[in-house]
Amino acid sequence: MDLSHTPEDEEFRARLRAWLATALPVLPPPPDPADWPARRARDLGWQRALYDAGYGELHWDASPTTRLIFLEETEAAGAPYVGANFVGLLHAGPTIAAEGTDGQRRRWLPPILRGEEVWCQGFSEPGAGSDLASLRTRARRDGDHYVVDGSKIWTSHAEVADWCELLVRTDPDAPRHRGISWLAMPMDAPGVTVRPLRTLAGSAEFAEVFLDGVRIPVANRVGAENDGWRVTMVTLSFERGTAFVGEVVACRRVLRELAAAARRDGRWDDAVLRRRLGRLNAEFLALWRLTQWNVSEAAAGGGVPGVGGSVFKLRYSHARQDLYDAAADVLGPGALDLDSPWVLDRLSSLSYTIAAGTSQIQRTIVAERMLGLPRGR
Amino acid sequence: MRFQLTEDQTALRRATRDLLERRFGERERRAAAGGGSLDRALWRTLGDAGFFALCLPERDGGVGLGFPEAVLVFEEAGRALLTGPLIATLRAAGEVPGAASGETVVAAADGWTVEWLAAADVARPDTADAVAVRSVDPLTPLHRVARAARVDPVAVLLTAAEQLGTAVRVCELAVQHARTREQFGRPIGAFQAVQHLCAGLLVRAETARAAVYAAAVTGARTDIAAARLLADEAAVDGARDCLQVHGGMGFTWESEVHLHLKRAWVRAGRGGGGAAAEEALAAALTA
Ligand SMILES: Cc1cc2nc3c(=O)[nH]c(=O)nc-3n(C[C@H](O)[C@H](O)[C@H](O)COP(=O)(O)OP(=O)(O)OC[C@H]3O[C@@H](n4cnc5c(N)ncnc54)[C@H](O)[C@@H]3O)c2cc1C
């Protein structure tokens, strides 16, 4: 059991920290959350800055421990969140890196790393949420193209995306898990219609995507035809395994801000509130240790995070909701004012137990795949 | 950073588990639950195995290992429901003659209670005013003291390790039962309500494990406080859910489950309970 880093990793940390100290102060202020083109520009600009400084590739080429330090330091310094680059950097990118051909890696990875192209994730459908394998969007072969018809829903960042990692049914007669393929779809292809959906936080973070005779080159398929489910499992293990690392660091910062706010306005004398924040400190410290445990295991086991990600995802998504409920407690009546700090975060925290696999689905995964309980149904 | 166990650490854990399975199995546990007397021969065996001298430097006749190793050993002790004032005796090694070897049994006031006072040869600190209570845990005789004793952070860490052992064990017991007990023509583990209880057991145990092991590595006050809170929760809530999964069987004296819950309660009360840890962690937020 060792939590210390190698001298090389510590040197990397020092270099990164020094660079962040120069790069962050010159960053323009964050744009209006409703202004999507401005948000896209900022998120891509930040990725470009990372790339130019030599930190662009960390999401899939570095060792898990170096990546951990990268996420730890950028969050601690208050650097912008991955934002619109989420799917490209943490999801589609790692999948293409792991499963794509050389040509596909050359085509799609550099623009993600250089902050030039935004990706979105077209998995869920109106009839296929938790039961993703029941998806019905159909792709028919026509020469060297697929012709795709169907619709996707809850597609985050679809409005500003250049590419979509799209799950389609290529063989409707095969057993459900064996007839699915993973395609890279250009969002400007004829027949793609995006209709933004307003979330309970008021902004349009996700959208419906209608696909009407969209032609996608067969060469855009990652993995073999009808092998998309396995490819998807690789993607989901990334999403659940490592995508939230930086957020734990961010939550620990929020917790200190809450304590400072409570001290300023006298709420700190309330032992119930104080101890609630103390317990949350334990919770997020433990989640940080669990992150280190999972990363260390991934480093020992070859890089792809295991089902242990489900344990983390379950615990973390509930902890995040508890954190912002505690923020509401600190705010008192201010919790009902959308202009108070943390109120929008409290609203968006509600999605954490739903997106990327609901808590119920995660518990079933833990029970059946980690504990080996008999399958239900 | 290699947070996982080294080969030596894995071997130490294995050896501890083997020793406890041989010397403190179900038969010994049942005998202990009947009486409340300490098995001195077992205590000497533990002493010979280096249990109490684990953290004592080699130049003082100890094993010279660190907190990570101690935590692994105490996790096994917790898992096995091993009885006696283990932590008090380990902490007395090097100070009280015979403690390290298992010849002298040492009890200590910890918060508002003293465990195993009547069976001990030495009690620290002064426990003159201690009053015997009818202990809720049949495997842990208890006294109460009038003034709360000072809390020893190492004792808190080792208690958290014992709680982790309980959390892991009750998860195993629940899963075993859920796989084998059948109702409505199938194992109850195929029912989602039962599956999700079991998943909760694992999530709490694994989160506590990361916190406890990290606290052993850093020895930092905040890590120890966090480990304590997470491990208490994993043990107490875990034992309760395990009981639920066992149905009527879980409510019997016969079953092992209640012993885990009661012991988890006793440990959660050490050091005066979790309030101090919560306060310390709150204070750390504004430091
Ligand atoms: C903010 C946000 C962003 C998202 N972004 C994307 C994106 O970019 N791309 C994308 O493809 N998808 C995205 N999603 C979709 C997300 O993955 C789905 O919402 C999720 O998988 C749940 O599917 P559903 O909404 O259809 O709910 P349902 O599957 O209908 O579930 C409804 C309820 O039933 C429960 N339930 C369902 N099946 C079971 C079962 N077998 N056992 C027990 N309980 C069950 C669920 O836990 C839930 O409580 C996003 C969702 C949100 C909230």
Describe the protein.
The complex is a heterodimer of chains A (377) and B (287). Chain A has a four-stranded mixed β-sheet. A four-stranded antiparallel β-sheet of chain A has the order 2-3-7-6, with no helix packed on it. Chain A has eleven helices and eight strands. In chain A, 48% of the residues lie in helices and 15% in strands. Chain A folds into three domains: 7-113, Butyryl-Coa Dehydrogenase, subunit A, domain 1, CATH 1.10.540; 119-226, Butyryl-CoA Dehydrogenase, subunit A, domain 2; 244-370, Butyryl-CoA Dehydrogenase, subunit A, domain 3, CATH 1.20.140.10. The two termini of chain B are 27 Å apart. Chain B folds into two domains: 7-144, Acyl-CoA dehydrogenase/oxidase, N-terminal domain (Butyryl-Coa Dehydrogenase, subunit A, domain 1, Orthogonal Bundle); 153-286, Butyryl-CoA Dehydrogenase, subunit A, domain 3 (Up-down Bundle), CATH 1.20.140. Chain B has helices at 7-23, 26-35, 40-48, 67-80, 86-92, 153-180, 192-218, 221-246, 257-269, 275-285; strands at residues 106-110, 113-115, 122-124, 131-133, 142-144, 182-183, 186-187. Chain B is globular and about 60 Å long. The interface between A and B is large, with 54 and 55 residues. Bound molecules: flavin-adenine dinucleotide (FAD). Flavin-adenine dinucleotide binds at residues 120-124, 129-130, 154-156, 206, 351, 354-358, 360-361, 364 of chain A. Chain A: Residues 226-371 form the Acyl-CoA dehydrogenase/oxidase C-terminal domain. Chain A: Residues 120-212 form the Acyl-CoA oxidase/dehydrogenase middle domain. Chain A: Its cofactor is FAD.
Per DSSP E runs of 2 or more residues, the count of β-strands of chain B stands at 7
By oligomeric state, this entry counts as: heterodimer
The dominant shape of chain B is: globular
Q: What would CATH call the architecture of the largest domain in chain A?
A: Up-down Bundle
* The CATH top-level class label of the largest domain in chain B: Mainly Alpha
> Main sheet of chain A?
4 strands, mixed
* Low-pLDDT segments of chain B: none
- Provide the gyration radius of chain B in Å: 19 Å
Q: What is the first-to-last residue Cα distance of chain B?
A: 27 Å
